[in-house]
Automatic annotation (TrEMBL):
Database matches in SMART domains: RING
Catalytic reaction annotation: S-ubiquitinyl-[E2 ubiquitin-conjugating enzyme]-L-cysteine + [acceptor protein]-L-lysine = [E2 ubiquitin-conjugating enzyme]-L-cysteine + N(6)-ubiquitinyl-[acceptor protein]-L-lysine
InterPro entries from the UniProt entry: Znf_RING, Znf_RING/FYVE/PHD
GO MF, one example: ubiquitin protein ligase activity
Organism whose genome encodes this protein: Gossypium barbadense (Sea Island cotton)
Domain RING-type: 110-151
Protein name: RING-type E3 ubiquitin transferase
EC number in record: 2.3.2.27
Zinc-finger recorded as keyword: yes
Keyword match Protein transport: no
SUPFAM superfamilies named in the record: RING/U-box (SSF57850)
UniProt keywords, alphabetically: Metal-binding, Zinc, Zinc-finger
Pfam families named in the record: zf-RING_2
Taxonomic lineage: Eukaryota, Viridiplantae, Streptophyta, Embryophyta, Tracheophyta
GO cellular component: cytoplasm
């Protein structure tokens, strides 16, 4: 350090970001290790230290796989819960959603997936006149009976 400069601090991570950050960081380190040292560890003349390093890396790799599996299962569990949301009544959804062709003056973004609605593409218009991709709004209405934009209430089960 020169003068009274303060050292650069890494940004603070939110709790839910830490496991992903660690997985990404260690994945990069493992990739570097594999490309630099792994070929040398395959030699029959490997030293005991090299063999220990290889076993530690293999153990870490197994831990990394377990961490990814846990994160994946956690995400699936989170997505599968409704958290008190009430789905729309399926039989009435098809009647209330109008299938349209996206026009130039229509909104160009599906608010559910945040992707563009292409002019000329097929989409669905809710009674509140908001437009969405068909798959997006159908999936949404299986979770909630409210319009994702204006909270228009669809009939519920």
């Amino acid at each position: 350090m020169i003068g009274k400069q303060t050292p650069i601090q890494p940004p603070t991570l939110f709790t839910y970001e830490k496991p992903l950050f660690l997985v990404l960081t260690f994945s990069k380190m493992r990739a570097k290790f594999t490309t630099l040292l792994a070929p040398r560890l395959q030699d029959s003349e490997s030293t005991p230290t090299q063999l220990i390093i290889a076993s530690v890396v293999e153990q870490y790799h197994n831990d990394e796989i377990l961490m990814r599996r846990a994160l994946s299962e956690s995400a699936l569990e989170f997505e599968s819960r409704n958290y008190g949301m009430v789905p729309a009544k399926e039989s009435l959804v098809n009647e209330m959603l109008k299938r349209i062709k996206v026009e130039d003056e229509d909104i160009k973004v599906c608010i559910v997936c945040l992707e563009q609605l292409k002019v000329g593409a097929k989409a669905y218009r809710m009674p509140g006149s908001h437009i969405f991709h068909g798959d997006c709004i159908e999936k949404w209405l299986k979770q909630s009976h409210y319009c994702p934009i204006c909270r228009f209430e669809m009939p519920k089960n």
